[in-house]
Amino acid sequence: MNSFVFHNPTKIIFGRDTASQVGEETAAWAAKVLLVYGQSSIKQSGLYDRTLAALKKAGVAVVEHGGVRPNPVLSHVREGVKRAKSEKVEAVLAVGGGSVLDSAKAIAAGARTDADVWDLFIGKAKLEAALPVIDILTVPATGSEMNGSAVVTNEETRQKYGFGGAPMYPKVSILDPALTLTIPRDYSAYAAVDAISHLLEGYFTGADEGVPLQDRLVESTVRTIMESIEAIQKNPKDYEARATFMWCATLAWNGLLTAGIGGFGAPSHMLEHPLSALYDIPHGAGLSITIPAWMKYAAGKGNRKVVQFAERIFGITAGSPADKARKGIEALEAWFRKIGSPVRFGEAEIPAGDIPKIAALARDLAEAWALNDYSEQIIAGIYRDCV
Ligand code: NZQ
Ligand code: ZN
Known about the structure:
The protein is an alpha/beta fold.
């Protein structure tokens, strides 16, 4: 086990009817707040009206910044920064899924710097401070509710980049599983793939292979996600399954399960971001294509954890390590297909002829994330396995 510091400052309020606490929780940080939300879901569910009523009751003034789209874009973040500055808001309240939270976090950081907010994403400016962020999460998937990162696409360059740091952890995240009962079947699948991917990146690539507790925590969380999503797809109104999945997704990417594993990479994400940036597919739908392809590449290089994954997640015990790895990858692909997430480019309408363009974008990201083993050639080779 490597030495580590684990310091996650986000206060989580979890359970039924917790969204009603948004007024007092926001008032503890601000008298005037920028309310960031998406396209239509919170208006349809009534959460928008309830949030405004709770803020009014708590005496919090509201400036609105709605219209965040899935795979959120830089131009909308820039507008939010302008509004936050001109209206002198004291905090940002996000109500929605990961795209809304990420936009809100980027706006919160952009509002506290004179630099262009994109400079924070590309490392040209340093994150020094951010307005306090509070959120009500309506899609569990990304872990954004309990981490310090934000991911946004620059529409001009098609770069989908992230940045983060201590100032960007939400102060308070309100997680009411009942708010997730309306998430459709296909998006429940993409959310599950994303949460599983966050568990697997560290598990497969961590520098220290001798961390049995973290391995087993990851494996049990993956299995729990698989069970809960199957239950959700059978009965979308299953509160217990929604609650179980919601907490799994938060724990999957809040730093707890990577503590002690040493340095690790996120190659499946490096390979996915160009797909959702170029073709506007859901992040999870891109990951169900890139994860198995990356696992084939890693297994070919003798990655022992891919074999352990096959043994412990799918109970594959017969055959050589290479056989087990292959069967484990096939089983994972079959499960992705079963829940309705694509596993090949064609299933997501991604043209194979675009591989050079996709690989060039991924190579830039690999460089930004110090994934130095990934040349453009290697990346293109992995993408060819996605066809
Ligand atoms: O815009 P609205 O109308 O709200 O609709 C959304 C959107 O269409 C809808 N929705 C939200 N809550 C709902 C609901 N539908 C029914 N019932 C509800 N309760 O769901 C759609 C998808 O929402 P989105 O926020 O885009 O989904 P998700 O939470 O999966 O976020 C994905 C984004 O997060 C990034 C991804 O790349 C992607 O851009 N990520 C962020 C990370 C982070 N900050 O740590 C890490 C991840 O790896 C990921 O990169
Ligand atoms: Zn992800």
